[in-house]
Each structure stands twice: as structure tokens, then as C-alpha cells.
Amino acid sequence: MEFPEIVKQIEAAFPGAAVSVDDTARCVLIAPERWLAVAEHLKTDPGTAFDVLMCLTGYDRGPGEPVGVAYNLYSMEHAHKLEIRIETPRDDSVIPSVAHLWRTADWHEREAYDMFGITFDGHPDLRRMLLPDDWEGYPLRKDYQTPDFYHGIPVPKDKRGWE
Question: What CATH number is associated with residue 127?
Fold first, then answer.
């Protein structure tokens, strides 16, 4: 199935769920409150059969802008790809978890939580995985301020390689 047909199927099954469509990037922006139903449909519908979540990554478009997650889906049966993006307000960033649909989402969602502060509602074990539990803030947000110290240890602010 080609990208335009996939978009038409999403729009037919979930009117209003597609906030925007980028034909060049082959990407669909889905409303967060509709994401879980759309995800279940994309995985289980025989016409789409997106059985592989290749990647999930958080992103931040800058202060005053929402944060988001990009999901790269692939169908082994149909050999088609799709990128879905979900954006949520940075001060209340909650997106439904899809870890129960695609097992690979488990650790990817934890990483997006740890680095961007995006909460994945329904995740089976949402906790930090790269930073200590008591770390304050989310380092990949563009408005993040690196602390001077962590438990009395100076935190480097300007890394120039691994010296």
C-alpha cells in the first residue's frame, strides 16, 4: 500500500485523528488522544499490518513549542514504511504507551521519558534508564539548564570530545 492510501485509510477509520500530513517526509501527525486506537489499527489491520516498530525517538522543537515522539513503522508483509508523529504540550507531555503493541517500544519510551520528560501512559515500567533517579530535568530538551553540581560533583557544561 502506498503512503496516500495509508493516509486515506487512517482518515476514513479515524476522522480528525490526522492533524497534518507531510507527503514529502511520508509522515502523519496524529492527535495524542487518538494515537492508541490508530496504533492498534495500523498494527492489526490486514491492509497495513505494521508489525515492526523500527524506531521511536523523542524530539523538541524549542522553547514555547510542543515536544513530540516520532514512530517509524514497517510492515514485513507489505514492505511499506510510515512515520507517525505525536506532539504534546511541553508542560504536560503525556502520550499513550504502545509497549504492549510493539515490544521494542518498551526501552525506547523509557529513553524518551528520561531525556525529554515525555510520560507514556500505561507503560509497564516507566522509569529513568540512563540518568540517576534523582536527576532533575530532561537533558535533551532545548530549554534544559545543566546543573553546576550533582551530589557535590561538578557537571561539565561544554564537552569537546572525550578528553
Answer: 3.30.460.80
Structure confidence by residue, pLDDT tens digits, 79-102 = 999 999 999 999 999 999 999 999
Residues 104-133 have a mean pLDDT of 97
Check pLDDT > 90 for residue 162. no
Give the residue numbers spanning the domain of 12.
3-154
Q: CA nearest 1: which of 92, 81, 96?
A: 81
In DSSP terms, 52 is beta-bridged to: 74
In the chain, the DSSP E strands lie at 18-22, 27-30, 52-60, 67-75, 80-88, 94-96, 119-121, 149-150, 153-154
Q: Which residue carries 509497564 as its cell?
A: 124
Q: Which three cell numbers stand for residue 150?
A: 550533582
Residue 96 lies in a domain: yes
User: CB of 30 within 8 A of CB of 88?
Assistant: no
Rounded alpha-carbon distances, angstroms, from residue 129 to 107, 149, 157: 8, 20, 21
Q: How many domains does the chain have?
A: 1
C-alpha cell at position 110: 523509557
How many helices (H) does the chain have, and how many strands (E)?
A: 3, 9
CA distance 132 to 150: 10
